[in-house]
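Working notes for the structural subgroup meeting. M.R. asked for a predicted model of this chain before we commit to crystallization trials. I am recording the input and output together here so anyone reviewing the notebook later can reproduce the run.

Input as submitted:
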Amino acid sequence: PPAPPRPRDIVIERWVPYGPQAKRRTLLQRAPAPPPYPAPRNVIIQYEQSPARIVRQFQ
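Returned structure, recorded in token form:
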């Protein structure tokens, strides 16, 4: 029988460099202070009960 096909080549990708890391600059930029929240008004709203029409039908 014929020999099986050769396997595909293995590609090794190096994403993380090995060895000592290079010194990188650190940029620090502070966020602005948040705006103050408005004080709560503590308003209680009472609504009248809505008129209801009850119809009962028994058969």
